[in-house]
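User: Can you predict the 3D structure for this chain?
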Amino acid sequence: MLDISTLSLLIVMVVFICVAMIMVHYHSNSDQVRRKKNEVASYSQKLSQKIDVVEKEIIDLKVKIETLDEEIDILSN
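Assistant: Here is the predicted structure, written as structure tokens:
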């Protein structure tokens, strides 16, 4: 049978390995969260730029519709 010092050394080694595994897992997850956060920020920025472009196109189309309506009114009178 193992004596007390050997057993305590084995227990300490197992605890150390468990703590090391937890730390590696934590760092891996925090890196993954940071990457996903940056990815979401990038997509948000791209989408906001696309939204701005679409809003400008909508304004241009509204102006064109108004001018066409005016031309139709002039031609119908």
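Residues 31 and 37 are 10 Å apart (CA to CA). The chain has one helix and no strands.
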